[in-house]
Amino acid sequence: MSNEFISRKEWMHRHDEEMRRDYPDRLTADMAEEMDVNYYTVSRRAARLGVGKSEAFMHTAFKKGAKGGWRVKGEGRAKWKAAADEYMKAHFATTKNDELAATLGTDPKTIRRWARRLGLVKSDEFMREARSRGHAKIRQGYYTPEHLAWREQRIREVYPDGDAEQIEALCKELGCSRGWLEKLAHDAGIRRTKEAWSRASKEGHLKSGNTKYTPEVIAEIADYYPDHTKQEIAQRFGISPGVIGRLAVLHGWRKSREHIRRIRSETNRAWHERKKD
């Protein structure tokens, strides 16, 4: 750092040519250190000269990101953000969020937030490819109403009476796992037919996790389920409550109204007793 006094006017003119030549492709902080002035002085002078960062430099800076030690501050922040917005508009529709996050030096959540602010969505081609890879199973925001209607229609056509091969083919078509397919069917009120369950049990496909259950056991649990809690069922049949819940989803079992009223009454009674205490 030099101790020589440099007037503002002299500095402005001394480095004008250097600013026009080097500023587009160099870090502002590095230039400020070499010129022995403040970072913001360089930024303001570049703006006054009408000089900005080049597209190649910004792309490299995006790739380096915050982890590379590069920070955009002050007046340069608005320019950087504008460049980031343009990059999002050009690439969001056809690029994975993780890749965008790595390029822009941020995280996927920020990418999604920016996309909502800019009104950006993934292209239909990108989403079809993502679904075919099974990478678009959960985020409902990416699905169009048309796709959701088509997906539910395909589940209604195949799931109730489909055999093991048809169900597997449906999972591949929708880009989801068997468990997620069962959840989608359950949420839509779509159940397997008795004929399908009977056929699956004969073929040895009726199971929960790695454990297979005979039709007799399934029928006995089905009779016991509507009027008892998962803990009571688990204690009687030696099955964990989690497996009981999975079997209930698979078979579409529901609790009886009497059982629901009894549980609510017991819960309310316990709450009032705790309140008195």
Provide an overview of this structure.
This protein is mainly α and 277 residues long. The protein folds into 4 domains: 1-52, no CATH class; 54-121; 144-202; 206-277. The protein contains 17 helices and 2 strands. It has a two-stranded antiparallel sheet. The longest helix has 20 residues, at 257-276. It starts with 7 loop residues before the first helix and ends with a helix.
List the SSEs and their pairings.
Elements: H1 8-14, H2 16-22, H3 28-35, H4 39-49, H5 55-64, H6 75-91, H7 97-104, H8 108-118, H9 124-132, H10 145-158, H11 164-174, H12 178-187, H13 194-203, E1 207-208, E2 211-212, H14 215-224, H15 230-237, H16 241-251, H17 257-276
Antiparallel strand pairs: 1-2
Helix pairs in contact: 3-4, 7-8, 10-11, 15-16
Sum up the structure in keywords.
two-stranded antiparallel sheet, 17 helices, disordered N terminus, 4 domains
Quick one: how many beta strands?
A: 2
In total, the number of domains comes to 4
The fraction of residues assigned to DSSP E strands is under 5%
Helical content band: 55-70%
The average pLDDT score comes to 76
Gap between N and C termini, in Å? Answer: 73 Å
Give a concise summary.
66% of the residues lie in helices and 1% in strands. It is built from 17 helices and two strands.
